[in-house]
UniProtKB/TrEMBL annotation:
Cofactor annotation comment: Binds 1 divalent metal cation per subunit.
Keyword vocabulary terms for this entry: Carbohydrate metabolism, Cobalt, Isomerase, Manganese, Metal-binding, Zinc
Enzyme Commission number: 5.1.3.1
Protein's UniProt name: Ribulose-phosphate 3-epimerase
MF GO annotations: D-ribulose-phosphate 3-epimerase activity; metal ion binding
Organism: Ornithinimicrobium humiphilum
Pathway: Carbohydrate degradation
Amino acid sequence: MATPHLQISPSILSADFANLERELGRIADADWAHVDVMDNHFVPNLTLGQPVVEALVRVSPVPIDCHLMIEDPDRWAPGYAEAGARSVTFHVEAAADPVATARAIRAAGARAAFAVKPGTPFEPYEELLAEVDMVLVMTVEPGFGGQSFMADQMPKVRAVREAAKRRGTDVWIQVDGGVSLDTIGQCVEAGADVFVAGSAVYGADDVAARIAELRATAHAACGA
Ligand SMILES: O=C(CO)[C@H](O)[C@H](O)COP(=O)(O)O
């Protein structure tokens, strides 16, 4: 099996919102900057929207990986790609027409991804693999940083990896929530290759060193 390209996507949800340009600068060694868009309807929390994403794109040293935790992504998701996010993830639970939404994101120039909450099975959405570049398996209930990792989501990561192999697609699998030095290994073993980490990165004294440690731990878990 080819060595997977393991990627670290620090979540700025745990960063200092009073100085996001500086906080993005601290993760210049990462592969992505993960930006959580929450609308206080799909999840009980409110963060930021398209104008702020547009501003972050202008100053970020790494591409923006936008995770939309919002109602009606069919209407709003393509706008985040137009704003310059290089990857846009929407929740299948909120999408009326996920195929059209994924196509609209790609047409606007971004990688498209769909996310599933812990209680949402992957199997009904397997056909969607043909339309996306990544699947996000949530390893906490979406809405807040700093929650405990849900190891019971690993079979779902395995199911996505198996389905992708069967279908011959090289879709990325992202995990988000409670990812740390203690939990990243089991995510790699299950087949994930993109790791969102908020508190594990921004809670470290040396953010760049923590990103390097997460990457090294992930590589060690896959024997690379
Ligand atoms: O999507 C999210 C919450 O809904 C965040 O990206 C996630 O929780 C990251 O925070 P932490 O790594 O601290 O769990």
